[in-house]
Specification:
The protein folds into two domains: about 110 residues, Aminopeptidase (3-Layer(aba) Sandwich); about 100 residues, 3-Layer(aba) Sandwich (Aminopeptidase), CATH 3.40.630.30. Strands 1-2-3-4-11-5-10-9-8-7-6 form an eleven-stranded mixed sheet, sandwiched between helices. The C terminus is likely disordered. About 30% of the residues lie in helices and about 30% in strands. Helix 4 packs across helix 5.
């Protein structure tokens, strides 16, 4: 039986993709079998162009062949998104068929108050309420993640201002944006995304202060549980806050050769 907390966390991931990438002008999404197959509108976004299984038994050879044909129409690079604890056995099946891991990330959850870590008193946390804030989100992301316009324009949009389900937060020091985070609300859990800090503000507790403020805000809304996908840089902080790993999510690229699910 699948862990209900794992299922809830994956629903939050799916909700984030739906709100950020699948509803972008030019995006195309369809269902093949019991998998969501989505083209983001940008052929280079290997994470947003993906096959998303809707339950542990959703993947199959016909689904993968259909996905390969779908993405070929858009000349798009793409990935199968697979969490090991949700679909045991499929890691070996994909790798045996020539699929390769583009990247992997721990899937982590927090189900109560975070540990009380030291904050930076010189950092001011601001929810994004103005167009200038959205521009600052893109500015931080560009430096923190080396992300381009294809991602930044989808993550930070003017239409998110005042939205009830997508929230952006910024950290400022001396008027300069130093760190950012995006929150996607999904029922009784929230997904926290794109927590990044500009280089000259790192190792000064900017991300710590930002995360604690975001978690304070979520608890004020009655939301005690949150999930995130951790980078290798961010994982130690999340562990200090009390997050625990419930799986590893890997983005698998299709085999270069013809065959099982090949492009």
């Amino acid at each position: 039986m699948t862990d209900p907390l794992l299922e809830q966390a994956l629903r939050c991931v799916d909700a984030f993709y739906q709100r950020i990438f699948r509803n972008w002008p030019g995006a195309v999404t369809q269902t093949i079998g019991d998998c969501i197959v989505s083209f983001s509108g940008d052929a280079r976004l290997t994470g947003a162009n993906h096959v998303w299984p809707q339950h542990p038994d959703a993947l199959s050879e016909p689904v993968l062949h259909g996905a390969a044909q779908f993405f070929t129409r858009y000349h798009a690079a793409w990935s199968v998104v697979l969490t090991d604890t949700y679909m045991p056995g499929w890691v070996e099946r994909l790798e045996a068929s020539g699929y390769y891991g583009r990247w992997s990330t721990p899937l982590m959850v927090l189900t109560g108050p975070p540990r009380d870590l030291a904050r930076n008193p010189d950092v001011r946390i601001v929810p994004a309420t103005q167009q200038g804030h959205i521009a600052d989100v893109g500015r931080v992301m560009s430096e923190a993640f080396a992300s381009g316009a294809g991602v930044n324009n989808r993550i930070g949009r003017a239409e998110h201002l005042g939205a009830s389900d997508i929230l952006h937060y910024l950290a400022y020091q001396d008027g300069e944006p130093s760190a950012c985070a995006t929150v996607a609300l999904c029922g009784e859990m929230a997904g926290i995304w794109n927590v990044g800090t500009r280089y000259r503000f790192r190792r000064q507790r900017h991300a710590t202060t930002l995360m604690l403020a975001v978690l304070d805000e979520l608890r004020a809304r009655g939301i005690e549980a949150s999930m995130l996908m951790a980078s290798s840089v961010g994982e130690p902080l999340y562990e200090q806050l009390g997050y625990r790993q419930i799986g590893v999510t890997t983005y698998y690229g299709p085999p270069y050769r013809a065959g099982f699910g090949g492009a």
